[in-house]
Amino acid sequence: MAQTATTTGGRARTRGRAARYSAFDIVRRGVTHSEWPRSFNEHELRTTYDVVIVGAGVHGLACAYYLAVNHGITNVAVLEKSYMGGGGSGRNTAIIRSNYLTPEGVRFYDRSVKLYEKLSVDLNYNVMFSQRGHLTLAHNDASLRTMNWRAEVNKLQGIDSSVIDAKEVGRIVPYLDVSADTRYPILGALYHPPGGIIRHDAVNWGYARAATHLGVEIHQQTEVLGIETAGGKVTGVRTSRGNISTSMVINCTAGWASTISDMVDVKMPLVTHPLQAAVTEPVKVFLSAVIVSGSLHVYVSQTDRGELVFGASVDPYPSYSMRGSLEFTEGLAAHILELIPSISSLKLLRQWAGLCDMTPDYSPIMGVTPVEGFLVDVGWGTYGFKAGPVAGEQMAQLIATGRTPDLIAAFDLARFADGRLVGEKGAASVGH
Amino acid sequence: MLLIDCPYCGPRNSTEFRHAGEAGKSRDLASATPAQWRRYLYEYDNPLGWVRESWFHSAGCRRYLSSERHTGTNEVRWVVPFGTAAPSSTTDEETSR
Q1: Read out DSSP for A275-317?
Q2: How far is the C-alpha of B50 from the C-alpha of B76, rounded, in Å?
Q3: What is the ipTM of this complex?
Q4: For an engineered disulfide with B55, which of A102, B17, B18, B82 has Cβ 3.0 to 4.6 Å away?
Q5: Distance from CA of B81 to the nearest CA of A (A)
Q6: How close is the nearest chain A Cα to the Cα of B22, in Å?
């Protein structure tokens, strides 16, 4: 079943039907009109797997990929009740950064940025990571103080991050209104040059393609209905397509994390909130950096296609509904026009929502639970996509070695019992 | 958009309200153990289905309300003043997943 794979520096070299994408191949297939091979394989659901991953988003797919490529564990099923990358992994605003507030958070997300930087090469799949700079605007003294705090923590961890003044902000982003007589004048910003945007679908598909060619099975339209345990240990999974026996289940869902953990009676400190986003019609490129304003509850970036992508705070009450609301659009328009008045005649093309499972300290929950063989990689709030590669890599290491890696030790479930919270709210893009 | 039928003010947009969390959580200030405090502070049912919860009508009567809402559809089944017994017809209904 498993195809032969060797690793060189984390880079997968696959045999079999995996096509190696290259400029030469585009020309060759263009000239000869030959078909591209399928990117993903479909499989019958088998009755036993070494590892079952719940959720085929970036976290589940990355975990499967690193299990295969770093540890040679390929008897893995990724179960997805809907379609691959259809949850938070396909609904986020695709911003990547590591300028967090706590040393634990900064180290962790920096590893993720490093993995993203070489992901296109590792996966042989263009994920279009564009490190165009990330600006978190400060509109008052309190936020300027937090920016300075974050900048110092970042520098100590070796991250390129500094506080710049309004004039410099205006130089980097000429279309921002940096005049002093606005309602929320820009006093300065936390500038993070390695931050940027990525094509999130490509990340999901790239991981899925690489993982399936290493022998991992991805099962879409396969809903987990229950998790069987005996004597405090996981023994199997009931799905809409049949039962699986396994001793290892990883909950890699976002939004629905509580409903999966409920299956083994592991109570999670999570509340699910929708987070809405919107996109405008495409225009010529005028916005280079990613702009975030906590006070105005908005963030914006321009995609390679020229559309402006906006995000805001999570919805003010918990829900699993992904319907958009007019309040969001109205608030978004009012706030973004404070910052960039010149886009007032741009039309919004569409808006959507994804689900965020918010933790009390805005840090994720990763690692072991009281049920043996049931691991969690949940509670990502609004930070999930940024952390996909590193979370997958570290969870894979935990599964393979049985020991929690140092990088994620601070984010364990037991911290809520022991009072070791990792307060990351100060690094939230916008006040949630 | 969520419409909440405030028993004091009538139907109002949810933007007038502040969500005050899942109902039914309590702790005894005098005798709560650290474990009970932890459950009170951090653990949530967070169900996909009918949930009992509290709202504060911050831009209206400024009173607390109790409601039952479906977190999948956002349908609000009833709203009563805080501390009032829930309508009996729905009290034992099973939450749907």
Answers
A1: EEEEEE--------SEEEETTTTEEEEE-TTS-EEEEEEEPSS
A2: 9
A3: 0.90
A4: B17
A5: 19
A6: 10
- Chain A neighbors of B46, CB-CB under 8 A: 258, 268, 270-272, 318, 357
Distances (CA, A) of A265 to A49, A60, A229, A262: 22, 21, 10, 5
CATH (domain of A75) = 3.50.50.60
> Under 8 Å CB-to-CB from A226, ≥6 apart: which residues?
A237, A238, A263
If one counts the domains in chain A, the total is 1
Question: Which residues of B are less than 8 Å from A360 in CB distance?
Answer: 41-42
Minimal C-alpha gap between B93 and chain A (Å): 19
Q: Which of A272, A321, A323 lies at the smallest CB-CB distance from B46?
A: A272
Q: Across the interface, do B46 and A271 touch by the CB < 8 Å criterion?
A: yes
For chain B, which residues make up each domain, given as ranges? 3-25+42-90
**Is residue A8 included in any domain, yes or no?**
no
Domain that holds residue A116: 48-432
pTM for this predicted structure? 0.92
Nearest chain A Cα to B43, which residue? A269
- Residue A144 in any domain: the answer is yes
Nearest to A411 by CA among A269, A301, A277: A269
Residues forming beta bridges with residue A271, ordered by sequence position: A358
CB-CB under 8 Å, A320 with B48: yes
* pLDDT tens-digit series, residues A146-201: 999 999 999 999 999 999 999 999 999 999 999 989 999 999 999 999 999 999 99
**Residue A375 placed within a domain:** yes
Mean pLDDT of chain B: 88
- String of DSSP letters for B43-85: -----SSEEEEEEE-TTTT--EEEEEEETTT--EEEEEETTSP
CATH topology of domain B3-25+42-90: Folate-binding fold (3.30.2270)
pLDDT confidence of B88, banded at 50, 70, 90? Answer: low
User: Has residue A11 been placed in a domain?
Assistant: no
B41 vs chain A: nearest CA distance in angstroms? Answer: 9
